What does this fold into?
Amino acid sequence: MPEVHLGAVDYAILSLYFLFVLGIGWVLRPYIKTGNDFFLSGRSLPAWITGLAFLSANLGAQEVIGMGASGAKYGMMTAHFYWGAVPAMVFVGVFMMPFYYGTRVRSVPEYLKLRFDEKTRGFNAISFAVMTVFSSGISMYALAKLLGIMLGWNFNLSILISALIVLVYISMGGLTSAIYNEVLQFFLIVAGFLPLVFLGLRDAGGWSGIQSRLASVALSSGYRSDAWTRTWGIMGEASRNPMGVEWFGMAFGLVFVLGFGYWCTDFLVVQRAMAAHSMSAARRTPLIAAVPKMLFPFLVILPGMIAIALTHQAGTTGFALPAKDGSYDYDMAVPMMLGHYLPSGVLGLGLTALMASFMSGMAGNVTAFNTVWTYDIYQSYIRPGRTDGHYLAMGHVATVGGIALSVAAAYVTANFNNIMDMLQLVFAFVNAPLFAVFLLGMFWKRTTGHGAFFGLLCGTGAAALHHGLTVPAGAGTLLKGGWLRGVVHVYPSEMAQNFWTAICAWVACFVITVLLSLLTDRGKSDDELRGLVYSLTPRVKDSGSGPFTRPAVLGAAVLASGAALYIAFW
Amino acid sequence: MQLDIRIPIGLLFSVIGLLLVVYGAVSGSPLYERSLGININLWWGGVLVLFGAVMLLLARKSLRGLPGLPRRDR
It folds into this structure.
């Protein structure tokens, strides 16, 4: 794409943002005195702040860029990643948060230790720590690469500066600093992308204009005319939609296994809710996050959809996505739209929003990493029984270490072409079965530690096996599957293969955990499981001053709104 | 809470908004060809100033509502 030229006003906005990021850390510095302050924000934040952070921690810039890219490639179906997340967010708020917050555990692995045993926690802690380092490294790599393409900035310099800024503000303000910057990022994304959506919509002739333009995109690719503007209506068969997924794979694979697996068990997001000041605030955290989550497709997917619509009529619009490997380079959709519509001034704001989401995506991973490292690995296996001050100091060291490892991961990613795809594959193998263990652990007191641990291993193994035996149509490398002898199934798309890999992992983990639990001793008595298992925990009273401060009521309202959006774009 | 997040948010958006309004007022119209002839800096800057002011007002209000909290200058 052509380079975008920034004016003085754009640089001024960018510098203002950096100034505030560092300033927030500086002002918070005197309040970070204990490990609890540094790792858990002293459990003192109100629900709206943890809620927005819960959403933003997941909204890294790969997410923003990637969702725009998917919007161009698959159209409105991309909204499944948003509206499909709503049930999981309601479930974690209403049913799971009482266990996470009520037991006062400091991390998700620590819950696994209390509920099951040491080896289950160790497995989760180590795999999670590795994943966070690589996620933050990938985020850094993506930022530096994008800045290089868009602005011609130096790759090494971009990595160095972003790493330093994140290091400084986390070291000064701990989790609070990270959360505050996530809230700031949320508002910046809205402020930076709304003008883009407004101008894009206006240019394309509103929603009906986009529909008719996308109809020609769909027809020319051999689909029904509304294939780019519907969610469920085109999913009867995999061959009838651009994603190549049928409704069952979507509902069970993405919405249930991957969605619940991510939102309910990933410490990166759960940590935000744990920082809330009360049980009620912790439970409302994911519910409050779900409200903007539902509206974000219009902010991040729509620009991608507009980009492909304009590209399709490049003759009259003068806008065209660059080509790549015989198709379009969809990842350029959002950056190109920014450069196409926004004049100097709001352009700086749009870039600041992208920058903010990269940095807080990185910071989120680093804060989750330093907590899991310090409490679940260092305190548990390396140096138990030290003072709080000792662990706080370790937290600071872990922050430096985590960022240094992220930088290393960024360079590894830069040097090996396919490593990004490979890592995401591995994450899916590890993450997908986890929700089965949580579901069983929380709602069936008979579940045992041996069952959980070997269930997880078998789930991961099943995912790898499934991936080795299947390929997506047109796969060129073994990375996409089929590396075992004898391919037994060809999926219409990578997305379909991913969803079914997750389904295999989940089912295998579920079945093995149940079987092994029945065969092994419980190990923990009812007394030890009080507060950890649903049937042995007193119900949390759903208190609150108004109806919408009560988690169950808020949850029901959020679910209803999600359903309404689905129906509107059925 | 140690620092009301609405204060830095309010300040940042007010300043950015003001910057955009001023830039929008002085910059020429050729700049706005790409934004369909709309002076988006002026308009959107105004909205951001408004948003920033509301954030600051809310922060101020809650500071008054909780007299037990120490007053902070920032």
